[in-house]
Amino acid sequence: MSIAVTFITARGDKVEASGSAGDNLLRVGQAAGLPLEGTCEGQMACSTCHVIVADDWFDRLDEPSEEEEDMLDFAAGVRRTSRLSCQVELASELDGLTVAVPADSNDVRRM
Ligand code: FES
Q1: Within 6 Å (CB) of ligand 1, which residues are found?
Q2: Cα(72) to centroid of ligand 1, in Å?
Q3: For residue 86, which of 49, 67, 77, 95 is within the disulfide window of CB 3.0 to 4.6 Å?
Q4: Is the separation of the CB atoms in 102 and 50 below 8 Å?
């Protein structure tokens, strides 16, 4: 089953992407061309994969670990529903998930 994810860019554009159960949200976003750097490749040693989850989806995700919450403290523009996308695994019940990429997310690959 394909799981649809909508990314909202810093400019407010919607980018539709999709993945499968078990896929990592960071990888799905990168594959769709979003500027999610993911410098540490999911080791929770950076916060460049920061996304803001839509309010009505936030509670449907697994709880973030303490390590993730600590690392989110370093993310710019963090909000109540912020998550590290590298720590979010797609599952069938997340079909339709919507997340925003913060304005200050920068991707050195594009510089
Ligand atoms: Fe570094 Fe997610 S890629 S914390």
Answers
A1: 26, 38-42, 44-49, 71, 84, 86
A2: 10
A3: 49
A4: yes
Residues linked to residue 87 through DSSP beta bridges, in sequence order? none
Distance CA 76, CA 102 (A): 8
Tokens, residue 61: 């995700």
**What's the pLDDT tens digit per position in 64-77?**
999 999 999 989 88
Q: Are 81 and 54 in contact (CB under 8 A)?
A: yes
Tell which CATH classification among 3.60.110.10, 3.60.21.10, 3.40.50.920, 3.10.20.30 matches the domain 2-103.
Answer: 3.10.20.30
Banded pLDDT at 3 (limits 50, 70, 90): very high
Contact 19, 3 (CB under 8 A): yes
Cα of 71 from ligand 1 centre, angstroms: 9
